Amino acid sequence: MIRTALKTVFAHKLRLALTAMSVMMGVAFIAGTFIFTDTIDETFNDLFDDLFAGQDVIVQGETEIDVGFSGPPPMDAGVLDLVLAVPGVDAAEGSVGGLAIIYDKEGEAIVPTGPPTIGGSMTDDLRLAGNVELRDGRVPETATEVSIDAKTATDNNIVVGDVVKIQSPMEVAEYEVVSTIGFGESDNLAGATFAGFELATAQRLFDLEGQYSSIVVIAQEGTSPDLLRNSIASVLPEGVEAVTAADEADAQSEVLSESLGFLQTALLVFALVAVFVASFIIQNTFRIIVRQRQKELALMRAVGATGNQVVWMVVIEAIIVGAVASIIGIAFGFVIAQGLTSVLSAVGFDLPSTTAPLATRTIVVGFAVGMGVTVAAAVLPAIRAARIPPVAALQDVDVRLRMSDRRRTIIGSIVLVVGIALIVNGLFGDILDLGPLNELTAIGAGALMVFLAVSMLSSLIVKPFAQFLGWPLPSIDNLTGTLAIENSVRKPRRTATTASALMIGLALVAFFFILGDSIKASAGAAIEEGLRADYVINVDGFSGGFSPVLGNTLDEAPEIEATTSLRFGFWDRDGSDEFLMGIDSETVDQTIFLGVTAGSTEILGQGGVMVHEDIVDGEGWVVGETIPMGFATTGRQQVELVGTFTEAGVVQANFLIGMGFYEENFKGVGTDVDFVLAVKAAEGVPGETSRAVVEAAAADYANVTVRDQAEYRKSQEDQVNQLLVIFNALLILAVIIAVFGIANTLALSIFERTREIGLLRAVGMSRRQIKRMIRWEAIIVAIIGAVLGIVVGLFFGIVVTAALGAQGIDVLSIPAVQILGLVVFGAIAGLAAAMFPARRAAKLNILEAISYE
Amino acid sequence: MTTTQATSTGAVAARIDSGTKTYGQGDTEVRALDGVTAEFESGRFTAIMGPSGSGKSTLLHCVAGLDVLSDGRVFIGDTELGALNDKDLTLLRREKVGFVFQAFNLIPTLTARENVLLPLLIAGDDHDEAWFDQVVGILGLEDRLTHRPSELSGGQQQRVAAARALVSRPAIVFADEPSGNLDSKSAAELLDFMRRAVKEFGQTIVMVTHDPVAASYSDRIVFLEDGKIVDELHDPTPDSVLDRMRQFGA
After folding, report:
1. Residue A684, domain member (yes or no)
2. What is the mean pLDDT of residues A492-500?
3. Model pTM score
4. Angle at the Cα of B91 (from B90 to B97), degrees rounded to 5?
5. Which of A702, A731, A758 is the last residue of a domain?
6. What are the chain B neighbours of A490 within 8 Å (beta carbons)?
7. Does residue A478 sit at the B interface (CB-CB below 8 Å)?
8. Do A482 and B114 touch (CB under 8 A)?
9. Domain of A672?
10. Inter-chain contact B99–A478, Cβ cutoff 8 Å?
11. What does the pLDDT look like over A14-65, one tens digit per residue?
């Protein structure tokens, strides 16, 4: 049986190669995702191990609340004396860190997109410096000296002795570069820029005078880090902890791995879409192969093969194809990993591009998916193959092996209804309790079911659909057009499956178009209604924020009526991260319309939290009661709910706190710089004047951009567009697989129609006409896929947008041009898919073709 | 029905001159045609007979421009096929040649009417409705025109194929065992029509067959054996064909 299967595989190299290709691409995407995230993971692991090299114990603020964008809270500088007094401590020094943006010689901020802009204190005891190495020069000794990372220096032609501007939370000032530093062999910290200051200067610049972010300890010869940690811990005051450097390295890389976990999951979702599309193609191929081999299989049955043996023959064939595809796919994963790096770097995330390791998990999952999908797709056709009666070998009859239309309609409809129910339930919640099923998983499963159902049901409408879509064809291209339409509906099920594979990718593209456009429209409307300020200042790219000094400067200017700072932060809400915004409560009413429905911004200035009305209603809270909030630096507290508001579009947060309360709880966390500054010009000041004033003040802060309302709105739209580019880039593979699917199905269909094509050629059809006929057919199939995709995408887009109403996406906007563009795209995809099959059909030898059996 | 036209004008519709066709090379070389020279006169019905492997189908394919000779020349009218590229050959088949094959003559997705008009549809040409009606009428296909091939009997399918071969008024029609898959009644109807097309419309037909009865409908039979023309028979009857075949010991 295995020999027979092997022979069959070799006999049909081409079509199986095309099938394997689709599996291969899906596996490659999965393997690529793993390799990609493993690479980043390992890079950071190495990095942290190196960072703590030579250090034994780290003393730092303790926090029971672990939320995003937060480090340990700072501690009092007096802790250092306690530590130094512990027996077994050889050396110990305090350090601080915070935001520092280095400017190049032209005064432009050097802001890598992705990695942070770090500042910190430098030690002159190199044993305490981890793997920090002076490349040249000496450590900073005065308040006007700085040391910068070697990569930033070389990239920007900065050498020791140069004077550079640096922005820190407290000021923008000039410093003399006294050295460049490296981290072991690396010239920078995974892409981050670094500015090192003398300790007292750093404390002042980061607003941490009399405080340390952490204390690094080195043990005396013969003292184990673990024992030393214990003795240090016993002398530490409350709220400060001691950990071994090794544990801290692990902990930090773990935090990073967790945030990478999200990226990995997101990528895997796209990879699974690709695999799902591939499974359509494989199933179609095996179904066609079984049909074409009907006689051969019947003959085997006639000479005594059992039904089980026939099943096994087909399944073994699938195993071989799946195995080959998995091996190549895993290898190809390295290329995909490179591609992912390029996609992300194209939109601004600089990522390390080291050689990716191949983990056992990658191989196992790659094989499991590749083989699993292929075999699963082949099983149904195989079982049907076993039902071919031996007599079919002798008669020239087509045995009907497919499901009846009636059964199809019933099963398809059930799957459709269940799928839609899962989606609606997941989105709007609380209708049905699905127990352990996560909401997102339920929505995903629902989406897959909708795709499956549409694929099943669409075979019933393929015929009128193709005739409708193809109506202009006969008048454009009489005979070839007519033949193309007829050919596309000959096997409605085959056409439906092929088109459905394309549908999936395009439905998701359409969905993202609609969601993106709705987000843009909602944000635009929110800015129009909610922004009273004339200018908005915010950071470019991904740098964390900018110095609050800018706002203070503007407050002095007579042309400016008011400025409002917004600072973001994360807090712990019942165990999960929640976002909040700290706002200048005294000025916010002048710059931003919040739609306060209870309490007032004035009250918020005295403490407490103001929450979006929808959340308050949903939770059944009442104004005046307290709600539990957990902060990284200050722990759990009961915070009074002092008001409600309805317009979250500009502040982009559902929880607002006053700036005083913010500073109490986010001091030293790293986000305590301005994130957004809303600026209102004084009455009667001409726009040009006020803008000039704002621009002049902001000129020193090279990482920010000043925008008026319209510009701000556009910048928000650009951010959404950028995300759309990423998502669509990730969906391209699914679309490519579908195009391969169309090509493969077309090639197999042409193979079945060999005699017919031979006859057409014999009675005078030219090669060009044959090609045209096949191209038209491919275009029809692809457009059916595109139209189905648009329909499904519209559905997804509309329900998801409706469900996100509470998140501020309250405008449904459907970008008609982009969506109709998908039809054109479909036609082009069809044309591309037809290229190879058309050429092949045109080259058929007429004599062989007409005598082909 | 129009008046009877000339039975033979004496002009040559197609000819093959020292045609040789070999397959394979060296020890495995097979000579399917071995220096065949023959003429097919306009307005006549010629049958090519011979045992299996005698080269009769190869001869038909080569003269029809479906296959290319290894050596020698083939003319349809005054056109030498060897000088034509694929595009010109395609045009020649479309305009000058009609075909009737043994089986699978029709495009399953097209109606009988579309199948009949296929060469004209391919060319994008208008057709002569009167001529179309006449051909379809003689073949008794008037009420089958909207049917698909799968809804037609074997005999009807072959008659549609015959109508297709005639509707573009080609210079020559090639038929490869056209009645091979038909019962005797359907075969007789088809062959009778082919003979009428020659007698009444002056159509030129060349037919390959191994059936003496089918061959007896022709004006002239060319006998082929081992790739060579071995005999000829004019105005045959079934008996005279059988007699001749016995002489070969076939």
Report:
1. yes
2. 89
3. 0.82
4. 85
5. A702
6. 109
7. yes
8. yes
9. 544-702
10. no
11. 667 777 888 898 899 899 888 888 887 877 777 777 778 788 899 988 877 7
